[in-house]
Amino acid sequence: MNASPSNREGISPKTLLALLERLEQAHIPMHSLHILRRGKPELEAYYAPCHKGQLHRMFSISKSLTALAILKLYETGSISLDASICQYFPEYVTADTHPWIRQTTLRDMLMMRSCHASTTYKFDKKLDWVESFFTVAPTHKPGTVFHYDTSASHTLCALVEKLTGRPMLDYLKDVMLREIGWSEESYMLTDPFGHSMGGSGLMATSEDLVLLGKLLMQDGCWKGKQLIQRELLSDALAWHSATAVTGPITSECQGYGYFFWRGEQDARICYGMGGQLVLCYPARELLVVTTADTQGMNGANQLIYDAIHQILLPGLESREATDTASDAGREALWQKVSRLCIEPIASVCSQGCSYQLRSESPSSGEGMTPAVNYLDPRTDGARIQGLVYRIQGDSAFSDLSLELSDREGVLRYTLNGTACRLSFGLDRVIPGHFPVYDMFCASSGTWLDEHTFYIRTHLLDTSVGGVYIQLYFGEKDVTVFMKKQEETLFGEYTGHLYGTCDQKE
Question: What is the pTM of this model?
Answer without folding.
Answer: 0.93
